[in-house]
Amino acid sequence: MSTPPPAAATDPESTGPTPSDLAEPTDPTVFAPMRSAVAAVGTLLLIGIPTVIIPNPVFGREVPVRWWEYPVLAATVLLTAAWFGIRSAREAGTPSRLGGDRPERPALVTAGVATAWFAVACPVCNKIVLLMLGTSGALGVWAPLQPWLAALSLVLLAGAVLYRWRARPCADGACAVPGRTVTGAAPNR
Fold first, then answer.
1. Is the dihedral of CA 33, 37, 40, 42 positive or negative?
2. In angstroms, how far is CA 92 from the centroid of its own chain?
3. DSSP assignment of 39-88
4. pTM of the prediction?
5. DSSP structure string for 30-43
6. In angstroms, rounded to a whole number, what is the distance separating the alpha carbons of residues 164 and 8?
7. Which secondary structure element, helix H or strand E, spans residue 133, and what is its range?
8. Predicted confidence band at 22 (pLDDT cuts at 50, 70, 90)?
């Protein structure tokens, strides 16, 4: 036999939480660790396997992995995990620290990961590059550009993480600035 949940102290006739109580965000944390871990593993596999930074029997690579590709892959994985791990204000149901309903900028993450993939891929294994530049162009033009692409991808990812961190949810009036009212702010509890 089950017993009903305890009544709230403020309302002696209450029998438990109401549907409106359940609709409110109950977890004020900023991070989503499980989503971050899934994003990290997904990014590692998505980039590491086809570029053969992670050796596998399915894909081949004509040019050996260069030393800088390992840290670029690691930084890409960490920054992608950080972006997915930071909860957005929209998810938390609270206003953003930047104010208003600003977009979350997922295009920066997508562009950063795609650019990282082109940066660490084998220069002569990429069919698009081979069609556009040929083998000598891939090694003479594309390969020297790849470290610059890697830097660009990390800048894009870092910018996306910084933007999402600055736009993280406000909770319990933490975003209140003296003398300025924030519209749509969550009430203090």
1. negative
2. 16
3. HHHHHHHHHHTTTTSS--SS---SSPPPTTHHHHHHHHHHHHHHHHHBPP
4. 0.71
5. SB-HHHHHHHHHHH
6. 37
7. helix 127-137
8. very low
